[in-house]
Amino acid sequence: MKPGFIAKNPSVLIFILILALFTLGVTLLSNAYGTGFVSTSMVKTLGKTLCLCLIAIAMDLVWGYTGILSLGHFAFFGLGGYMIGMWLMYARTREIVVSSASGALPMTPQELNDAIASQVFGVVGSSQLPSIWHFAGSLPMQLLFVVLVPGLLAFVFGWLAFRSRVTGVYLSILTQAMTLALSLYLFQNDSGLRGNNGLSGLQNIPGVTAGQDALSVWFLWASAVALGLGYVLSAFIVSGKFGSVMRGIRDDEARVRFLGYSVETYKLFVFTLTAVIAALAGALYYPQAGIINPAEMSTVASIYLAVWVAIGGRGRLYGAVIGAAFVSIISTWFTGGRVPNINLGFYTINWVDWWQVLLGLSFVLVTLFAPRGLSGLIDLIDGLRAPKRGGDPLGPDDGALQEKEAEA
Amino acid sequence: MSALLEVTGISVSFDGFKAINNLSFEIGPAELRAVIGPNGAGKTTFMDIVTGKTRPDEGRVLWGEKSINLLKLNEAQIAREGVGRKFQRPTVFEDQTVTENLMMALKARRNPFSVLFWRPSGEDHARVAAVAKQVGLGDQLDRKSGELSHGQKQWLEIGMLLAQEPRLLLVDEPAAGMTLAEREQTTALLVELSKTRAVVVVEHDMEFVRRLDCRVTVLHEGSVLAEGSLDHVTSDPKVIEVYLGR
To answer: What is the pTM of this model?
Structure first.
């Protein structure tokens, strides 16, 4: 009489199936393993989109389920990218330095180190390897940092913010300030991460001889696996009592407190966990993008994230994925300059410029007229309707689910 | 009989207005007590202090056999000590089913890691079903609580309190918005509960208080005006003056 995890979460099975079919389909159409119908750059775009879907799930957990409108999750995403980027750049540069060494004697470790440092940091006028690059030569250490650095930052930030019971708009502003501060810090040349140049050449994986055609497919698979695991993990978290507590905090956190749950601890847990998920997504994203610079961590990026989740429909995991996939693919299409311009006679609408306006407008329209977002379409198929509550939200808190967002 | 909750000389003021003024209060481990008083007498503030929502400027709040100082604990810790509270307006989690509401309230470990891996056992399901039946929601388990009627929400909230198994129940105007039959049910339930735990009922409906048939504490301007049986306090000239006006 106990239904299993899949039976209680039918969306998990459907999601994994669609994801697997998609990945397989792209593979069979790729340059490296198939007909070559899908170009390598398109495979990369799709792989990156999967990473964006993963961070959207993280955003949905923290905002859609727990009601914390964090505008800082792209900072964690970027940090994850930087951590893996340090290894990619260091190890790749070492390969080049070693292979181009002309002396009869092999280089001493010190010489090797100096050569790498001047290669990597010449662009910011330095030849010293900053101390934060101490472990850059070690993949396991940098992978550990992908989790630890953003996780620790989220933990400390969250501990300070939640402990003083900062909620609602004020918390959003605080997270935004954190993102801005981090991005401004990284813009400085002496921050040790090459300032506004960022890290580049990340698409070349050290020690791998396969070309970009094959690599792009490998990363597509890695991203798909990460997204699948992230989805299952998130479904596990939100399906049980923990999910009840999360939704309780979103709708009425004072009540949750009087039930004996330490709201602050739960928020901190969710915030830190989602920061780590975001960082992992970033660590998979940037090797496909090839370059990371502090502009990626701008506050606007994190606002985009909220827009994706809102357009997809918050408070449901597949909503976040649909929103992120839909908006980022459309965005690629529009900004790629392949959409025909509209000539109005007196003015030509160039979509590369007007795409942002269209996105903003659709965000406003979705918020006003279709608060359940794109997943409202799925509800339509399922025959679900919003509960009739006479316009009341489902709880007194700022982040509480509104009547129109809720499932019946 | 030693007291379960011992409140001594608490005072609190908001922007210079003394909401609670040197108030002392005591209740035993199995006792029913009604707290009455006109609007602004400090009834709700008193509950806020006991549950940790408001910090008093002075005074002591001691709890249980070990005389734990509740003022050093936060809301969640106080709730875990065994203080349950029912609010005036029904506050249930409207986006969640009756079962989910009750499961969340069910007495169990509250730290995130235990909760994350907690899955209801057959026993837990039975307990939830029993509580739901007790509050007349036995056939509503799978409904979203947002769809319930006002009265049903009140009952669900009482059910959540029962599932929490508190040692002290603070109930704020339970009869508000209930039909006569529901009031009688509520009275019976509260009297029954007070046989095994302490129950404090804040109410200003005198008829309801009379039906509870218990000791009454009258609050006025943030302190205790009179205490005793309902007949005793209603014959007190000070109480008459406060309630009937000069």
So the answer is: 0.90
